[in-house]
């Protein structure tokens, strides 16, 4: 028994010193200060252009500080210039057929009447936190990662396939920057390029575990039951609590990305912060899709239109809690949205995104071996598996 106690104690010390380094843990102070200082006021070109520019400059400068290859993508619409901000973290396979790019993106602009802390200060803060985490680890990766802050997502009159939607920044980024960039850097893969896809973040921090804080639109209940029977059953059995992150994806095209995110979410603890998977089957009729249009209301729709895999993460915006009243209104503010539950919910989401991107980009660390052995390559995910094994072993002693 004494030997077992000593072994368990040694394993616990080792895990404290080694395993914690390999797990993702969001910096709550960074998330809070980012939201407070740069995403707490209107970011609209005609209302507060100075604040919006200050936010864009901050994102750009943070990308540079994190060591990303950073650039503005400027585009013009209706005589006004806008700016997407792009940061590239190149992998070993950059420019080759073997590279499988993964992206993370969030829009940073707002409508003209809101402070936009949840929509979409939360997604932008998570984008920066993921970039911070991934570049703070002493690691390399095989596949390239692209971080993108989209401008002019909030545009209510652009149309696609007869539907009203926004997302102008991502639309122009794909056609004017991403596709030419791929043709330039991956000329041998044109027509066969197969990225992992992009994780789109939009409104992420309205957590509410009160009964009936989550809405299923009454006029769409039949369609939700038809398309997502498991989700509806879960919500109804949980008294319609708004305590989950919604993951929206196409079952035929985006499952690889969605399933990896779902697995990583389960490893992050805090089981009270739940997840629901909204998988859209292929070839759904327009009348059904129109009934669940809230699931198509962000930048992911433009990637879907170009057959690029994408998943959309959201707290469901105006279908939940305080955002039922505050979506696109002045009360989407620090006073209403910034609290400990919301911040920790955003932190778990950020950690899960970082772990997902780390796994798919195949990150690895160079570990010095014994004298004369040279360097050994140890993947971070393998190291994490070792830690899980040690934790399980210690718990059995």
TrEMBL record:
- The name of this protein is Peptidase M28 domain-containing protein
* Alphabetized UniProt keyword annotations: Signal
What are the names of the required cofactors?
Zn(2+)
Annotated signal sequence range: 1-25
Q: Name one GO molecular function term.
A: metalloexopeptidase activity
Q: What is the similarity comment for this entry?
A: Belongs to the peptidase M28 family. M28B subfamily.
Where do the Peptidase M28 domain residues begin and end?
A: 84-254
Q: Which GO terms describe its biological process?
A: proteolysis
**InterPro entries assigned:** M28_fam, Peptidase_M28
**Organism's domain of life?**
Eukaryota
């Amino acid at each position: 028994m004494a030997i077992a106690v000593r072994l368990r104690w040694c394993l616990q010390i080792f895990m404290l010193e080694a395993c914690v380094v390999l797990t993702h843990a969001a910096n709550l102070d960074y998330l809070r200060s980012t939201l407070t200082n740069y995403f707490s006021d209107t970011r609209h070109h005609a209302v507060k252009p100075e604040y919006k520019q200050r936010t864009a400059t901050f994102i750009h400068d943070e990308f540079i500080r994190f060591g990303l290859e950073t650039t503005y993508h400027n585009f013009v619409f209706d005589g006004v210039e806008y700016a997407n901000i792009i940061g590239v973290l190149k992998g070993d396979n950059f420019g080759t057929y073997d590279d499988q790019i993964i992206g993370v993106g969030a829009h940073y602009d707002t409508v003209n009447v809101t402070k936009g802390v949840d929509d979409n200060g939360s997604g932008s803060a998570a984008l920066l936190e993921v970039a911070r985490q991934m570049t703070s680890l002493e690691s390399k990766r095989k596949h390239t990662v692209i971080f993108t802050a989209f401008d002019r997502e909030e545009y209510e009159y652009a149309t696609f396939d007869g539907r009203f939607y926004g997302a102008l920044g991502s639309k122009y980024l794909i056609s004017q920057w991403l596709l030419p960039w791929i043709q330039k850097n991956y000329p041998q893969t044109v027509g066969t390029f197969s990225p992992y896809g992009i994780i789109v973040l939009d409104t992420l921090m309205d957590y509410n575990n009160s009964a009936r804080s989550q809405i299923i639109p009454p006029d769409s209940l039949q369609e939700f039951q038809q398309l997502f029977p498991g989700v509806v059953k879960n919500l109804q059995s949980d008294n319609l609590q708004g305590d989950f992150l919604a993951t929206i994806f196409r079952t035929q095209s985006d499952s690889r990305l969605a399933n990896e995110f779902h697995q990583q979410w389960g490893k992050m603890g805090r089981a009270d912060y739940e997840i629901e998977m909204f998988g859209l089957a292929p070839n759904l009729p327009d009348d059904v899709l129109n009934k669940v249009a809230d699931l198509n209301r962000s930048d992911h729709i433009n990637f879907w239109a170009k057959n690029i895999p994408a998943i959309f993460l959201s707290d469901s915006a105006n279908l939940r809690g305080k955002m039922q009243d505050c979506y696109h209104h002045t009360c989407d503010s620090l006073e209403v949205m910034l609290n400990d539950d919301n911040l920790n919910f955003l932190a778990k989401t950020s950690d899960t995104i970082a772990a997902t991107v780390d796994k798919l980009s195949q990150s690895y660390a160079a570990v010095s071996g014994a004298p004369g052995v040279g360097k050994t390559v140890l993947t971070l995910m393998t190291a994490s598996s070792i830690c899980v094994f040690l934790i399980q072993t210690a718990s059995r002693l």
